[in-house]
Structures are given as structure tokens and as C-alpha cells.
């Protein structure tokens, strides 16, 4: 050891620059170390130490604590009522940060009272200690108020964690962080026990003379909010609708009151500051480095909690709806509109509320799902449709109805649940689903070709199935703009291909509409979607025309990018089917058709505007929109705003030569529309 230090001292790096020599510090620290002894820390094995040199173990880079060690914390230090409120508000803010996808070690677990719950139990304290406390800082604020609220916080974490862990579609680390760092979160404590403790805390605050009158309502509102959140997470949404609504209203009232109050302020030397240790992950069994997450003002916390409550309210509204199409509409509007993102817990709850692994909507079978889905699209249940096919079947082989049902059971459920995934995972699901939809389409063609009766409902089955597949294909291409996946040279083809997919989709609706009763909800819904698709197709064509100059002239640059971007459309599974997939991406057709368009871009925009204006004025929002009609109208108004933004596009084909899309178009899916650009003034 000494020889190594001598060699290091003989040639110090940075000698003569502003470096400080720390050789003596290392020499002093290593005096008591034996070269034959291995030193290990809790939760850090020899394998971890060996891997650290290769991959860079984060725990080796958490910073130096200092000679004094971690900051001291006295869980029984008396607190003022406003200090308790400040701690509870900050703890709730960290809970919302965890709900947003951050680590427990960086959020909830920074609350140091979590590790001292046994120290602040009233049962373990002497009566004299409880009665001789400072009258301005009664110890009951810790033992009777703060303690139960911390238990309620941990139990909320436990219930949230369980729901997310049990849901296969909300993936760990992509939507939420499941690492609990081996910290107990009251897993074995009954929820009712914690609720009773919170009830007792609320009664104490309301009646005890040791609580100042000024702080009774602020403390009580925070206790009731925690109790409401805990009961919401513990209530069966599908069966206890009345109780669930009452809890939502109670939580909403608490938030409105707390948001109306001025922010709680405490002194800089307050003991409440020691209640949070942002560097707690140094002492936890975790593999993540320290990360200090700053909290915004209390108003931001109340807004996040309100978003959580309103999202739970929407899920409750959905559980009262027995129409899969309405679930689909609500899910897509969540993706299309720029609302506050739903927490992972809410999206998981929506998925399990629709399908709990055994039943649909907690009461229906798979057969009901197919019957309802086809009834909402065609006006005929799948059971009646299958019976009509069997009654007119003349081929010696049985109709492929079981094969169709096997695929449809999976698709009908997954397409609804997938709409509550995060946008990237939703796009990946859509890419996989188009293969399954084409398989069903292939079977449906066999049925239509065998029956050969244009008046038979089965003759429309291929068009019905194709419409589902084309819907998914459109979502795949448009979501690429929302996720900012397309490079500038890829955008022209993306808009052109989206328009082609929409045109094929409109043809399906044109074929289906005559078979629907005009006073029925399936007719209203199909007509609405057809009109919206016409507007979308016109907008895509307009933007495609003005972005043609962005296409590279080098064919070797275009083709590899095209093959990577549309590999989902050329999967080998398609070879198992006899029918060719509809509207496959075709780069050669795209390049050949560049000069085929004769209408100027502005006319396409004006056509889209006329359709959208008519839809908004008529109040037509589709047949199955239900309570989501205002959101659908807001979606239409968003497309109308795009028409206004694109009103300055060239009004002639010749004018395209003077339009520079790189300078005059701006794509901003965060602050603007998720799919389309806006015309901006070119820089001078």
C-alpha cells in the first residue's frame, strides 16, 4: 500500500493546476484496512462489486455522506399544526410524483417518519410524556394525526402497487417503478384498521382543545382527503358505484377547500424540514443512484390530485357503460386530446374494470362481447350472423366460424384494453394486431366467396373486418407524428400513405352504410366516422402536397428508411394467409404518383373545413359517443383549428414551387396538433 502511495505522490496529475492533493486522506482512511480482508455493505455482494467495474454500479456514485453521517432526525420532535400540514402536503406531492412514474426511493420513501412508525405510537409512550408537551406543539399532532396519515400513505402505496403489479399490460419501468427497496408498506395491515385510525385522527382534530381552532379545518381536510384516497383505492369500482361516487365527491370537496387556502409556510429552521431526506436511497437496498426530485408549489400538488380524481371519475362513468364501442371512443379521445396524462394506476384500473381475467365488465362472457361488438357496428349480433352463415352454407367443409371467433375473442378485448396503454406501447400493440385482423379477414373472405350472395349479411363481413384493420393502420401512421418518430424526409410518404389507408376505409363504410337502418345508432356512428375520415384524408393530402420537396433525391437514402419504418406491414405471418393484405405500403407507387394530384393544397383544406364545420354545427357526435360527446366535439374543433392554420397553403399547383415546407411548416405535437403542422412565417 505504501509503495503505491509513493508512486502516486511522485507524479501527481494536474500538478500546478487548481487541484487538491487528497493522498493523505486516502492514506489515513486505509490505515486500518487489511489487504487480506474483504469489506462488504448490506445488500452489496461480491458479484455486485465485480460487476461494478464493468458496468458502473450506480451505488458507487451516490456521493460522500461526510464524517457526521446522515442528518439526525427525532421523530418525536414537537411540531406546530402548520408544520404538520406542510409535511402532509409535501408527502402527498411525492406520492403524486411516484404515480407519475418516479422511484419510491426518490419520492415517498424520502419521508423519514416511514421508518419510525413504531416510535410515534401512543401505546408505546408514557402518559406523562403525552401530557407534559408544549401546548403550542402538542405531541398528539405527531402520534394521533401525523402517524395515522403516514400509515394511510403507505397503505395507498401498497394498494396501488398491487393493482399495477397484477396487471400484465401496465409494464414495470415503462409506466411505473415497482422497486420498494425492501421497505415495508404495511402489506399485512388491514385497510380497515388504517381507516379507523384516520377516523380517530379526524375526531381528535375536530374535538380536542389541544388543537387551535384556526387549524382544525385545514388539518381535518388533509386527514379526510387521505382517508378518501385510501378508500377509493380499496373499493370495488364495478360493484360499489354509489359508495365510490360519494368518495369521489368527498375527495373533490377537500381539494377545492385546500386549493382555496393560502400555501402553508414554515420557518427555515423548522424541525419539519428534517422530515424529508432526499438522499435516503444511500441507506436503502436499491440499485439506483441518488436523484433529488424538486416539488412544485402546493397548488401543483392539488392540481395533480384533482387530475387523479377526475380520471377515476371517468373510469367510473365507463364502468356504467355496457357498450365496447363507447369504451373505444373514450380511450381514443384520451390519446388524441391534449389532456393531462392519466396516471398508470388509473389506466390499469380502466383495463381491469373492462376485463378482470374472467368476465367482461365483471358480469359478461366472451360471447356477449362479440355479440355486442357486431351489434354496435352492423345492427346484427355475432350469434345471429353465425347462424345465418351456417343456414346457407353449402360447402362440404364446415365454415371457419370457430377460427374467426378464436381470434375475435382476443382482439375484441385487447383493442379496448390497449387504449389505456402509454402511446408507444399502444402503437406497438397496433402493429401486432393488424396481422391478427388480416387473419380474420382471410377467413371472412372464404365465407363471402362461398355464399356468393350480395344481399346476405355475410357478404359484408370482409368489409367489416377490414374496417377494424384499417382503423389500426391509420392509428399506427398518425401516432408516428404524435411520437415524433418521422424524420423530415419520411413525412411526405407518411401523409400520402395515411390518405391511402383512409380512402380504403371510406370505401368499407360506403359498402356497409346501405345495410344499416338509418334511424339506428350503428348508422349514426358509421356516418360520423365516414365524414371525419373524409376531412382527415383531405388534410393529409394537402400536407403531403406541400411536403413533396422534402423527399430526398437519393433513392438509396429513401428505401432503407422506408423498409425500417414500415417493417410492421411486411411481417412473415402474412404468408400464412391466402388473401393479400389491403393497402400495403408501396414506395414505388408513391414515387410514381408524385405528379398525379391536380387540386391545390388550399382546396383540400377548404373541403376538410366545410365537413368539420358542418359536423360541429349539427352537433352530430356519433351514435355510441354517450357522455363523451363534448370531448368528441373538442376533437373536431382541434381539426378545425388545423384548417385555420393551414389556410395559408398555396392555392394553385404552380404556387407550390415557391413554398418551402422546411421553413414555413412547423410540427409541434406538444403545444400544437399531434398530427398536423401549422404554417409559420418564414425567417427573414
UniProtKB/TrEMBL annotation:
Lineage, top-rank taxon, reads Eukaryota
Q: Does the keyword Transmembrane helix apply?
A: no
Pfam families named among the record's database cross-references: Mak10, TPR_NAA35
Q: Where in the cell?
A: Cytoplasm
Q: Which residues form the NAA35-like N-terminal domain?
A: 38-195
Keywords, ordered alphabetically: Cytoplasm
Q: What is its main location?
A: cytoplasm
- One Gene Ontology term, aspect cellular component: NatC complex
Residues in NAA35-like TPR repeats domain copies: 344-508
Which family does this protein fall into?
Belongs to the MAK10 family.
Under what name is this protein listed? Mak10-domain-containing protein
Species of the source: Ephemerocybe angulata
Amino acid at each position: 500500500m505504501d509503495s503505491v502511495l509513493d508512486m502516486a505522490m511522485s507524479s501527481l496529475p494536474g500538478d500546478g493546476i487548481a487541484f487538491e492533493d487528497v493522498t493523505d486522506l486516502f492514506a489515513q482512511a486505509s490505515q486500518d484496512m487489511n489487504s487480506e480482508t474483504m469489506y462488504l455493505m448490506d445488500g452489496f455482494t461480491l458479484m455486485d462489486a465485480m460487476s461494478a467495474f464493468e458496468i458502473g454500479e450506480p451505488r458507487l456514485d451516490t456521493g460522500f455522506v461526510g464524517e457526521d453521517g446522515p442528518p439526525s432526525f427525532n421523530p418525536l420532535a414537537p411540531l406546530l399544526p402548520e408544520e404538520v400540514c406542510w409535511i402532509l402536503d409535501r408527502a402527498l406531492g411525492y406520492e403524486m410524483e411516484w404515480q407519475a412514474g418516479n422511484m419510491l426511493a426518490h419520492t415517498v420513501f424520502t419521508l423519514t417518519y416511514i421508518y419510525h412508525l413504531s416510535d410515534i405510537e401512543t401505546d408505546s409512550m408514557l402518559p406523562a410524556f403525552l401530557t407534559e408537551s408544549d401546548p403550542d406543539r402538542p405531541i398528539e399532532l405527531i402520534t394521533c394525526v401525523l402517524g395515522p396519515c403516514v400509515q394511510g400513505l403507505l397503505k395507498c402505496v401498497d394498494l396501488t402497487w398491487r393493482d399495477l403489479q397484477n396487471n400484465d399490460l401496465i409494464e414495470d419501468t415503462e409506466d411505473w417503478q415497482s422497486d420498494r427497496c425492501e421497505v415495508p408498506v404495511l402489506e399485512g395491515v388491514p385497510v380497515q384498521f388504517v381507516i379507523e385510525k384516520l377516523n380517530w385522527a379526524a375526531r381528535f382534530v375536530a374535538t380536542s382543545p389541544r388543537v387551535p381552532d384556526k387549524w382544525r379545518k385545514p388539518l381535518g381536510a388533509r386527514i379526510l382527503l387521505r382517508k378518501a384516497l385510501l378508500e377509493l383505492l380499496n373499493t370495488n369500482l364495478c360493484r360499489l358505484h354509489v359508495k365510490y361516487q360519494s368518495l369521489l365527491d368527498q375527495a373533490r370537496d377537500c381539494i377545492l377547500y385546500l386549493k382555496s387556502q393560502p400555501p402553508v409556510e414554515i420557518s427555515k429552521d423548522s424541525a419539519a424540514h428534517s422530515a424529508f431526506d432526499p438522499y435516503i436511497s444511500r441507506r436503502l437496498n436499491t440499485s439506483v443512484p441518488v436523484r433529488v426530485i424538486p416539488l412544485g408549489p402546493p397548488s401543483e400538488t392539488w392540481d395533480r390530485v384533482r387530475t387523479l380524481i377526475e380520471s377515476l371519475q371517468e373510469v367510473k362513468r365507463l364502468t356504467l357503460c355496457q357498450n365496447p364501442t363507447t369504451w373505444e371512443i373514450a380511450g381514443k379521445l384520451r390519446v388524441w386530446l391534449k389532456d393531462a396524462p392519466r396516471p398508470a394506476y388509473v389506466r390499469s384500473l380502466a383495463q381491469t374494470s373492462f376485463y378482470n381475467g374472467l368476465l367482461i365488465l365483471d358480469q359478461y362472457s366472451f360471447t356477449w362481447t362479440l355479440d355486442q361488438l357486431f351489434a354496435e357496428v352492423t345492427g346484427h349480433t355475432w350469434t345471429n350472423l353465425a347462424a345465418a352463415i351456417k343456414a346457407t352454407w353449402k360447402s362440404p367443409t364446415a365454415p371457419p366460424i370457430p377460427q374467426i371467433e378464436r381470434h375475435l375473442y382476443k382482439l375484441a378485448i385487447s383493442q379496448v384494453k390497449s387504449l389505456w396503454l402509454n402511446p408507444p406501447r399502444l402503437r406497438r400493440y397496433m402493429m401486432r394486431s393488424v396481422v391478427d385482423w388480416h387473419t380474420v379477414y382471410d377467413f371472412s373472405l372464404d365465407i363471402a366467396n362461398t355464399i356468393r350472395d350480395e344481399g346476405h349479411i355475410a357478404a359484408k363481413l370482409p368489409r367489416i373486418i377490414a374496417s377494424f384493420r384499417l382503423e389500426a393502420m391509420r392509428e399506427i401512421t398518425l401516432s408516428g407524428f404524435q411520437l415524433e418518430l418521422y424524420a423530415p424526409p419520411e413525412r411526405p410518404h407518411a401523409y400520402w400513405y395515411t390518405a391511402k389507408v383512409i380512402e380504403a376505409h371510406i370505401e368499407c363504410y360506403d359498402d356497409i352504410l346501405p345495410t344499416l337502418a338509418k334511424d339506428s345508432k350503428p348508422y349514426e356512428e358509421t356516418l360520423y366516422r365516414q365524414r371525419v375520415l373524409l376531412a382527415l384524408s383531405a388534410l393529409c393530402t394537402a400536407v403531403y402536397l406541400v411536403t413533396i420537396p422534402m423527399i430526398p433525391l437519393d433513392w438509396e437514402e429513401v428505401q432503407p428508411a422506408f423498409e425500417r419504418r414500415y417493417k410492421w406491414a411486411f411481417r412473415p405471418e402474412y404468408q400464412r394467409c391466402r388473401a393479400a393484405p389491403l393497402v400495403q405500403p408501396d414506395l414505388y407507387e408513391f414515387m410514381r404518383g408524385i405528379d398525379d394530384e391536380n387540386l391545390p393544397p388550399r382546396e383540400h383544406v377548404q373541403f376538410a373545413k366545410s365537413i368539420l364545420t358542418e359536423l360541429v354545427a349539427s352537433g352530430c357526435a356519433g351514435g355510441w359517443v354517450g357522455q363523451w360527446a363534448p370531448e368528441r366535439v373538442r376533437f373536431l374543433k382541434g381539426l378545425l383549428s388545423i384548417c385555420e392554420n393551414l389556410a395559408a397553403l398555396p392555392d394553385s399547383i404552380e404556387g407550390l414551387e415557391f413554398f418551402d415546407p422546411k421553413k414555413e411548416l412547423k410540427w409541434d405535437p406538444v403545444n400544437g396538433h399531434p398530427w398536423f403542422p401549422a404554417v409559420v412565417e418564414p425567417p427573414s
